[in-house]
Structure formats: structure tokens, C-alpha cells
Structure to design on (318 residues):
């Protein structure tokens, strides 16, 4: 079939295959040639309550087609610029292979996908899946220089071990903090009854993490929050959808009221892109079955596409 770019087909969002943003699909991970590579990690065996995030990648991809009109990029009248023009090459490399009940091998397959994206020089974007998928994502960065992790989440996710389990969705930030190439963490949105005990908070601070609640982040403002990240840090962003208030993002396994609203997160991400090199990201815990309106998946897709726009606009200006 002829390429859409050549034929001028309308290719409306509800037509065709739902790759991320309706961008090209690359099946062979040894042939990634792009600025951005998007991979699904449909793994939710790490959940301790409501599962369903295994369908997150599929739902976020479908939602992302809403923002796929044309190939000229997206003009933002507030910023007076066009984000994600055709010159920014984005591909969808499909999903990491998940092996039923086998966390270790499933995580290994996710790590392999991120390693392939990094080897190709593409910015890795991973759609989960529960938050444990962040563990293999961060492992893949070994040998790629120091990174600082910026986490948006309702929960600290700093559990060391629970009943012998060290790789659940309550543990990814603890596992990240243990890596010698992770120089620090900024954890924003942490609130209410969390996933981590007092001892976990004390351990997090001792291991170099900066913890902010939603109310503390609002008092600082987006620029104030991002100013706390060390200058010159290369930043990896992990965004748990439950960092948002469930009034706008109910489709998640562990909703926590009092979360961020859309522009609060968008402005923090824009400030990161303007002030730091972004080296990768994951967005996790979208569980679409809990949101029949699909608003949670649309929010996730919109945040990802906007953030990518900010990153490459900032890169072009440097």
C-alpha cells in the first residue's frame, strides 16, 4: 500500500492500525532509525490490588490517534510555535514480549527493548504496564552515563522488600536509587496513605531523594519544583498516571484523591524539557477497564505527545 505521505490520504484517527500517534511500526529492533521509539510494556503482575494495566499500552495507543491529524506538527498559539513537525521521527516498535507469570523474563524482555532503543540513538518511551516496568527500564541505562529520575506519582514506591518480593510496583524507586549511575531522585505528588512506611521515607531521603507532596509542589510552582533538580542533570521521567487526581484519571489500579490537574503536570514537564536533557521516560499504571470514558488514556497520550513536543523544541533551540 502506498505511503500516506505520498498519496495524501486523509487517514482519519478512527481509520487504520493504532500505532502510537499513527507513526510507523518497526518490527525489527535492530533496524530502529528514529529520534523517538515507543514501546509497550503490558505487564501488570507487580500489582497488589487492582490489575488491568496490561491493557494500558493498547488503550494509550488508540487514544493517541486522536492527535494524529496531518503531518505538519501541532501549532500551539500560547507558545506560538509548532511542536512535533515531520522532522521529528517517531516510530512504534510494538510491545516487549510478556511471559505469563514470569516476572524475571518479562522484565528482561522490557530491558532488551529499551537497550535496543538506546543503541539506535532513539529517545526511549515506554508505556506500561504497572510501575514495576520502570525497573528494567532503568537497568537498561547502565553504561549510558549518570541520570536523575523525576517521578510524578501518588506513591513513593520505595519499598525494599515485601514478603520476599523486591520487584513489585511498590519498589521501582528503591531499586533505582540503588544504581550507581542514578545520582538522585525528585519524587513529586506523593500524598495521603502511601505505599511506603516511615522507614522507607527515611531510607529514600538518606539515599538522595527529594520528596514533594502535591500541596508542596503547588506552593513552589512548576518552575520552583524543577529548580530543585541539580543543574546539568540528565533526567529520566517516570509518570504514574495516579499522580493525577482520579477526577480526571480514574482509570488506574490505585487511585488517590488530591492529585495533580493537567496543566500542573504539563508545566513541570515543559520546565524539565527547557532546563535539562531528557534521556527517556515511561508512563505507567493506566488501567483502561476502570474508565469507560477513555479519558485516562486520552490524558496519557496527550501528556506524552506534548512532552515529546517540548523536548524536541527545546533541543532545536539549544
Amino acid at each position: 500500500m502506498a505511503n500516506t505521505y505520498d498519496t495524501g490520504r486523509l487517514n482519519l484517527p478512527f481509520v487504520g492500525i493504532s500505532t502510537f500517534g499513527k507513526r510507523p511500526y518497526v518490527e525489527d529492533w535492530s533496524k530502529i532509525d528514529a529520534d523517538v521509539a515507543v514501546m509497550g510494556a503490558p505487564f501488570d503482575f507487580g500489582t497488589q490490588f487492582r490489575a488491568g494495566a496490561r491493557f494500558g499500552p493498547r488503550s494509550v495507543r488508540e487514544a493517541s490517534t486522536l492527535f494524529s491529524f496531518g503531518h505538519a506538527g501541532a501549532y500551539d498559539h500560547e507558545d506560538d510555535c509548532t511542536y512535533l513537525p515531520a522532522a521529528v521521527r517517531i516510530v512504534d516498535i510494538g510491545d516487549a514480549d510478556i511471559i505469563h507469570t514470569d516476572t524475571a523474563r518479562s522484565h528482561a524482555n522490557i530491558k532488551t527493548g529499551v537497550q535496543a532503543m538506546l543503541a539506535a540513538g532513539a529517545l526511549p518511551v515506554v508505556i506500561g504496564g504497572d510501575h514495576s516496568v520502570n525497573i528494567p527500564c532503568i537497568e537498561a541505562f547502565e553504561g549510558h552515563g549518570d541520570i536523575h529520575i523525576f517521578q510524578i506519582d501518588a506513591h513513593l514506591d520505595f519499598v525494599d522488600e515485601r514478603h520476599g518480593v523486591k520487584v513489585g510496583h511498590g519498589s521501582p524507586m528503591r531499586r533505582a536509587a540503588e544504581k550507581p549511575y542514578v545520582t538522585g531522585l525528585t519524587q513529586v505528588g506523593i500524598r495521603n496513605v502511601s505505599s511506603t512506611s516511615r522507614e522507607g521515607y527515611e531510607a529514600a531521603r538518606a539515599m538522595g531523594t527529594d520528596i514533594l507532596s502535591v500541596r508542596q509542589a503547588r506552593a513552589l510552582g512548576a518552575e520552583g519544583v524543577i529548580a530543585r533538580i541539580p543543574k546539568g542533570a540528565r533526567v529520566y521521567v517516570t509518570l504514574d498516571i495516579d499522580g493525577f487526581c482520579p477526577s480526571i484519571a480514574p482509570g488506574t489500579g490505585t487511585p488517590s484523591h488530591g492529585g495533580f490537574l493537567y496543566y500542573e503536570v504539563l508545566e513541570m514537564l515543559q520546565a524539565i524539557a527547557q532546563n535539562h536533557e531528557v534521556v527517556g521516560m515511561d508512563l505507567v499504571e493506566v488501567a483502561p477497564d476502570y474508565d469507560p470514558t477513555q479519558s485516562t488514556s486520552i490524558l496519557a497520550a496527550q501528556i506524552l505527545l506534548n512532552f515529546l513536543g517540548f523536548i524536541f523544541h527545546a533541543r532545536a533551540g539549544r
Observations:
- The chain has one domain: 4-317.
- The beta strands are 36-41, 74-76, 81-83, 90-95, 123-128, 147-152, 182-188, 209-212, 234-240, 277-284.
- Residues 295-317 form the longest helix (23 residues).
- The chain has a mean pLDDT of 94.
